[in-house]
Structure formats: C-alpha cells, structure tokens
Amino acid sequence: MLGCWVLSIMKGDNILGLNIRSSTIRNYVKAAAKLYTARRLADPFESPALEINYPAVLIKALKAYESIPNRREIICDAMLEHIERLARQAPQDSLYASFFNWLAWSRYSGPRRSEWCQTRKTKFDTVENGPPGESQAFRLDDISFYDADGREVPLHSDNWHKVKYASVRWRFQKNNENGETIKYYEDEINVRWCPCSALWNIALRAVRLGIPAHEPIAQHLTDKGDRHFITDKDVKSILQDAAKQTLGITDRNVLARWTCHSLRVTAANELHRLGFSDLYIKLRLRWKSDAFMNYLRHTVHVARNHTKALSLSKANLELQKSNLDSMNSKFKGLHVYREPNVDDILWEKNFYAAAA
After folding, report:
1. Rounded Cα distance, 98 and 104, in Å
2. Torsions phi, psi of 21, nearest 5?
3. CB 266 within 8 A of CB 40
4. Which of 241, 283, 345, 346 is the most buried (most CB within 10 A)?
5. Inter-axis angle of helices 95-109 and 77-89, nearest 10
6. Long-range contacts of 109-113 (CB under 8 A, 24+ apart)
7. Residue 229 — pLDDT band, cuts 50, 70, 90?
8. Closest by alpha carbon to 83, among 93, 71, 68, 98?
9. Domain spans of the chain?
10. Radius of gyration of the chain (CA)
11. For all residues of the chain together, what is the average pLDDT?
C-alpha cells in the first residue's frame, strides 16, 4: 500500500501536480509508518523482515532522478494561458508580446537559449568559429514563409492569409547541424498558438523595429522606447511569475526550476504526451541521442492517456455467446480451402478481440 502511495506522489498526483522531492516523500513515509508502530505493528518502511522495501526502492530512484543536472519544470497549460492573456493586453512590441510569440513557436521547436535569446540586453553572442560578428541566434533571413503550392510569400502584413507553412534555418546548433532547415505548418483552428502565426509576428516585429540584418531578432521595445534583446533573465522572470500566479508557488527554490530551458523541456513533453515516437521527438526537436528522455515528466496529461489506454470494458473481458456460435459455424467447412474474404478477416479480428 505504501509503495503505491509513494509512486502516486512521485508521479505528481497531488494538488499542484508538481514533482515532490525525495526528502519530502521520505518524511511523508516515516509519518505514515508511525500509524503502524503506534499500534505495535511492524514498521512497513524500516522492517528488516521485508523481502522488498518498495518505498525505499522508489525513493532511491527518485533521488537519482533529482541528481540529473539542470533539471527544469515544464510550462503547464495554466501558465501558457496566463502569459498569453497578459501578452494580449500589452503593446504589440513589448517584452510580453514579443516573448509570447517565441513561446508559442517554442512548443513546436524546443529552442535552446543560445539559439534565440541573449544574456545581455544590448549585446548578442556570436559564433566562435564563424565569420566575425555572426550571430548565434536567429536573424530575419533565417525565416521564410510559403503558400500551399510551395511558393515563397513576401513578408508583408497583407500577405498573412496566403501562408501555409514556414521554414526556419537553425543558424547554430549544439548538435553541430548548423544551417539545418525545419518546416512548421499552420494551425488554422488555434491561430493564437499557431507556429506560423508566431513566426510571422516575430518577423513583422523585426521589420517594424528596424532590426539590422546581422542582429538576432528576439527583441522588444522598453517603456522608454529603447530596443533590447530578450534575455534569459527576462524569460525566468516571466515564467516564474506565471508559476507563482497560476500555481500559487512561493518557494524560491521551486520557482527557480522555470528557466529558458523550460521551453525545450515543454516541447519534448508536448510530443511525448501525444504519443509520438522517440524517433519523431528526436527528429523534430533536433536530438542525436536519447538524452531527451531525461526531460520527460509525469504530467497530468500522461496520467490521463495512461488511464485511457488501459481502460477495459465488459465486452473486452467476456466471450460473448454470439461469437461462439459464429465460430462453430465457421469450423464446419474448414476442410475445403478457399481464399479468405473480408467477412472472414473481420470475424477473426472480432473473435480474438473478444477473447483477449
């Protein structure tokens, strides 16, 4: 019983849906064990008579998981909606509006910090072994837009209705596949969260702000009208404030888990929760190894999909009489061979599905 309870907490089945630290769970288990020892029963957590101490095994695994460096939390749906709402109310070239566009696109792309934003407000990082002054992060010429026939759509506010997909050139990547281009298709239903719409707004903003061709385009206007790069500190501030406002978290150590890298963690979990294969996740989010598995979290969406997948109905558990009668009638003529028809194939599928 305790083992199931510990596993439930580890999976994030709690009020906030967050992963609780191993030390906290250990204290919970010890408190639960007192319910046994107070009644002069064996301690279910420390008893040497146990063949397998499941709570200890699970807590040890969780502690090992916590040791993974740079472990970051995902940006949950409530946080995404909170940021979107604030961005909608802000000026179109403000920090919130600009960041929201990058956030919307990041759900499809999972960019690393160095690939799009900066550590300083007025200076940008350059490629060490590239041409002098070449930006690591995206420039305006790295983004292109196309119509349904594959013809490039010129960047103009009146042309958005023609766009079907966008292509992004990844100027500088950790996997050294520099210059790789990846396409992103439009979302006609959820336009606010459409990757193409986000990229279109990013590109139009770059033109409006007069960003020089050699500079990264993740920029915004301050209240004083100055043009600044979006920094990792800006991203931390926005994400941590969203976590505080939507999840009620005040512990600074917990809030510190939301950083620029949360965008990449979130992208991996979005694809994983929807059931995409490991190969697909690696391909779309530009991994060469299986390192992305360290990013996966036990979200409520994963738990819901798990339950739906394992759901059983009465029809699946009982062999119906009609199936037995149908089976007997089929067996009567088996000595005469004939090619199976569609009815035979469907009957077999239904029979084995019912018997499984």
Report:
1. 10
2. -65, 155
3. no
4. 241
5. 140
6. 109/168, 109/182, 109/184, 109/195, 109/267, 109/285, 110/263, 110/264, 110/266, 110/267, 110/268, 110/285, 110/286, 111/263, 111/264, 112/173, 112/174, 112/260, 112/261, 112/264, 113/232, 113/235, 113/260, 113/261
7. very high
8. 98
9. 2-66, 77-304, 315-355
10. 27
11. 81
- Among 205, 132, 198, CA closest to 168: 198
Using a 10 angstrom Cβ sphere, with 0-12 exposed, 13-18 middle and 19 or more buried, the burial of residue 37 is middle
CATH value of 77-304 in 1.10.579.10, 2.170.130.30, 3.40.50.970, 1.10.443.10 = 1.10.443.10
What counts of helices (H) and strands (E) characterise the chain? Answer: 15, 5
CA 99 to chain CA mean position, Å = 18
- 112, pLDDT greater than 70: yes
Q: Tell me how far apart the alpha carbons of residues 314 and 297 are, in angstroms, rounded to a whole number.
A: 32
pLDDT at 300: 64
Instruction: Give residue 172's pLDDT band: very low, low, confident or very high (50, 70, 90).
Output: confident
Q: Is the dihedral of CA 227, 231, 233, 234 positive or negative?
A: positive
Six token digits for residue 149: 């026939």
CA 298 vs. chain centroid, Å, equals: 11
Measured from the Cβ of residue 343, the count of other Cβ atoms closer than 10 Å reads: 9
